[in-house]
Amino acid sequence: MLRSVVSTQQWVFEGYVKYSKRNTYFTIPILDRVRMMIIPQSQLRVIYGLPETVLDAVNTNATLIQSPWTIWDHKVAPNDNNILANTIRNRITKNLAVLTPQIAVELERGFRREWGHSIGQWKTIHAWDSSMNLIAGAANSAFYGLPLSTITLPEIQKRLHDAARRRDGSNYLEAPCKNPSDQEDALQWCIEESYATGDPDHLDPMRIALRLVYLNDISTHSTSFTAANVILDLASSDPSLGYIKALREESARVLKEADGSWTRQAVSELKLIDSTIRESMRMSPFNSIGVPRTVIEPHGITVQQGNSTMKLPQGTIIGVPVAPIQYDEKFYPNAKEFHPFRFAPDAMLHRDISSLHNISENPKGSVTREKASVMIDESFLHFGFGKHACPGRFFAMNEVKIFVAHMVLHYDIEHLVEGRPKLKPILWLNAPIMGNFNVRVRKRDPVELRS
Ligand code: HEM
C-alpha cells in the first residue's frame, strides 16, 4: 500500500496495456482510497451514464478535493443545491463577453507586475507561482469586479440588502426582481442563484462568502496548473520549429482585427493557441487516474469483464486511467511528443502564417483531428466526463487563451535547453513540486501590433 505513493502512475500505465486494452477492469491499491477499480476506456460512456442514485460523483469529488475539511459548511460544499454549478453554467459562461475585457485588463496588469515591464530586461519567474498570482487576479476580476480589492462581509451584506430591496413585499424570496442589478460579477450572480433556490438559508452572508472561497479553490489551482504547463511546454520546445513565433503572429493578427482590445469573439479566433493549450493539457493531466465515482446502489452494479460479467459491490470506487488514455498512440500518433497544432483546423495550418513553414510534421493520424480545448471525449479527460464534467472549462479556456496571447505578444521566453521539467507523480496526482520550474522571460516591444 505504501508503495502506491510513488508507484501508482507506473502501475496504471502497466495495467492499461495489460487489462484495459482487453476490456477488463483491474484494481490498484492506493493509500488514500484503499483500492480503486480502474475502468476500461471502452466502457466509459456506459458506466458514466449511470444515474446518480447508482454512481455518486458529488461526495466522491468532495472527498478528493477535501472540501469537508477546507469548506466546513456542507450547504456550500458538497450539497449547495447546485448554486455554484448554476452560477457558472447559467451566468458566468453566458456572460463571457462581459467578463473578457476586464479579465484582459487584469492579466495585463498582472504580467507587468510579475514578469516585468522594462523592455529588453531578463527576469527569472517561477512558472507555477507566477501563473497562480496572474490567474487568481484575473479570475477574481470576474468574481468580484474591478478594481480588485478585498471583499468583506459588510460588502456582501450590502449586496444582499440591495438584492432584497429590488424585490417586492415580505415574501421577497419568491418575488420577481424589479430592477436587475447593474453589477455583473460572480458574487452578484451567486446571490441571484441563491435566491432562486427559495431557501433563505442560502442567503446567509457567511455562506455566500464561503461559496466564493470555494469558487476560488476549485478554479485557481486547476487553471494556473494549465497555464504553467503551457509556459513550460513552449519554453522547452525547439525554437527552430517556430511555435512561439506562430502563436505570436496569430495573436497579433487577431488583436489587430479586434481594434487592439480583447473581446470574447476575438479570443474565440485564437485557434492555434487553443490547440496548444489542449495539447499541453493532454500531455500533463493533473492525475494518472481521474474521474472518481463511488457505487452507491445497495445491490452494486454488474459490468462487462472481458467476455463475461462481474459485480462491483456498493462502496466500490472506480476511476479512469486518464494519463494512459491521453498517451495512447491509438488516439494520438507520436503521443510522447508535444505537437501544439495537433488539434488546429487544417485550414489554419495552410494560412499565410510565415512561422508555420517548418511545421509540416503535424501528426494528424486518422483519429486526431480538429478539436476545441473545451471539448470532452473518451480520449480527452482533463475536464472529467459525463454529467459532472467541469462546468468552468469555458471560463478557464477563455482566460488561459488571453494569458497565452498576452504572454507571446509581450514577452520572449528563454529556451529551456535542459528540457521540460517533469511533474512529480504522487499517488494518482501529478504534482508541480521537487523540480526547477524557473523560466527566464524578457519584455519585448510588440512591433507586430503597429500598423
Ligand atoms: C483548466 C482549468 C480547469 C480544469 C482542468 C478543471 C477540471 C475539472 C475536473 C477534472 C472536474 C471533475 C469532473 C468530473 O468528475 O467528471 C471539475 C469539476 C468542476 N469544476 Fe473544474 N476545472 C478547471 C477550471 C474550473 C473553473 C475556472 C471553474 C469555475 C469557474 C470550475 C468549476 C468546477 C466545478 C463547479 C466542478 C464540479 C462540477 C460538478 O460536480 O457537477 N473549474 N473540474
TrEMBL record:
It holds the Pfam family p450. Its cofactor is heme. One of its GO terms (molecular function) is iron ion binding. Keywords: Heme, Iron, Metal-binding, Monooxygenase, Oxidoreductase. Heme binds at C390. Coiled coil: none annotated. This is Cytochrome P450. It comes from the Eukaryota. Belongs to the cytochrome P450 family. InterPro entries: Cyt_P450, Cyt_P450_CS, Cyt_P450_E_grp-IV, Cyt_P450_sf. It comes from Xylaria flabelliformis.
